[in-house]
Design goal:
Length: 295
C-alpha cells in the first residue's frame, strides 16, 4: 500500500474575493491552518475547491501557490480530472510541472463510459504523465458508479494509479476494493462520516471536507483509527457527527465556506452556478458552530 496518501488529506476550499477573483492571500492562510493542524496533505482544485469552474490559469496559480506555501511539509494533490481524456492529460501535465506530489482524477462525468472506456481513460493518463494518480469515484456528482472490479482492473493495469478516493458511500464496495487490490494500491474514504469504518476495514485514510475547519480533531480521529486506538476514534466520531452533517445541508462547498466565514477565515464567495447559503442554512450553521473550537 502506498504511504504517500496515508492519513488525513484536506480537500481545501478555493477562496474568492467579492469581485470573483482568486483570493490568494486567504488561500495561503487556509494552507497555514492546515499545516498547523498537521494534516498529511491537501487537495487543491477538487470538488470542494470548485475545480469545475476554475480556468486553467487559475488552477495553475493555485497549484503553484500551494506547492510554494507548503514547502514540502505535507503532500499536495491537484484535482486534474475532467470528462475528456485529452484535457485531463493536459491538466495533469501542467500540475506535474507545478511540482505537486499526486493528482486526483474524477471519473468522467456526463459521457457515461463503459468499463472498457474507463480503463482506457486511466491507462492513457498513466502512460502520458509520470506522477502518482488517484481515482476519484463520486457517483453523486458523476452519475456513474465505478465498480470494485473496474477499479481493481485500473489499478492492475496502471502502475502510476496508487489509490482511489471512494465516495460511493458503499462500505461493501470499499471492502471489495481493499480485499482484491494490489498491495501498492490504497483506498481513501471519500465520505467523512465513513472514515472510521473504512479505516477499520483497511482504508489508508481520507480526503476530507470537515478538516477545512476541524483539522486537529479530525486528524486525531484518523490517526487514532490508523493506530488501532478505537476508543479515541469512537469518541471523536461522536463529537464530530453534527459537523459531518452540517457540511452537506446544502451542496458542498456551500456550507463549509459559510462555516469558514463564520470562523473569520474567508469570505463565503462562490462561482456560479453555486450561490450563497440560504438564510435558514446560515442560521442553522451558526447554531451548530456555536462554541466550536478545533482542539
Amino acid at each position: 500500500m502506498s504511504n504517500l496518501m496515508r492519513g488525513l488529506h484536506t480537500a481545501i476550499v478555493t477562496p474568492f474575493t467579492s469581485s470573483g477573483d482568486l483570493d490568494l492571500a486567504a488561500f495561503r492562510r487556509l494552507i497555514d491552518l492546515q499545516l498547523a493542524a498537521k494534516v498529511d496533505g491537501i487537495v487543491v482544485c477538487g470538488s470542494t475547491g470548485e475545480g469545475a469552474t476554475l480556468s486553467i490559469a487559475e488552477k495553475t496559480q493555485l497549484w503553484e501557490t500551494a506547492v510554494a506555501q507548503v514547502g514540502g511539509r505535507c503532500v499536495v494533490t491537484a484535482g486534474t480530472g475532467t470528462n475528456d481524456t485529452r484535457s485531463t492529460i493536459e491538466l495533469t501535465s501542467i500540475a506535474a510541472t507545478c511540482g505537486v506530489d499526486a493528482v486526483l482524477l474524477v471519473t468522467p462525468y456526463y459521457n457515461k463510459p463503459t468499463p472498457a472506456g474507463l480503463l482506457a481513460h486511466f491507462r492513457a493518463i498513466n502512460d502520458a504523465v509520470d506522477v502518482p494518480q488517484i481515482i476519484y469515484n463520486v457517483p453523486g456528482r458523476t452519475g456513474q458508479n465505478v465498480t470494485a472490479a473496474t477499479q481493481i482492473a485500473i489499478a492492475q493495469a496502471c502502475p502510476r494509479v496508487i489509490a482511489t478516493k471512494e465516495a460511493s458511500a458503499n462500505l461493501e464496495q470499499m471492502c471489495e476494493i481493499i480485499r482484491h487490490a494490489p498491495p501498492t494500491f490504497a483506498l481513501l474514504a471519500g465520505d467523512d462520516v465513513l472514515t472510521l469504518p473504512a479505516i477499520a476495514c483497511g482504508a489508508a485514510g481520507v480526503i476530507a471536507v470537515i478538516s477545512n475547519y476541524a483539522g486537529k480533531r479530525f486528524r486525531r480521529l484518523v490517526h487514532a483509527a490508523l493506530d488501532g486506538d478505537l476508543r479515541t476514534a469512537q469518541q471523536e466520531q461522536m463529537v464530530l457527527m453534527p459537523y459531518f452533517a452540517a457540511n452537506f445541508i446544502e451542496s458542498n462547498p456551500i456550507p463549509v465556506k459559510q462555516i469558514l466565514q463564520h470562523l473569520g477565515h474567508i469570505k463565503a464567495e462562490y462561482r456560479l452556478p453555486l450561490t450563497k447559503a440560504t438564510v435558514q442554512t446560515q442560521g442553522r450553521l451558526q447554531e451548530i458552530m456555536q462554541g466550536f473550537v478545533d482542539e
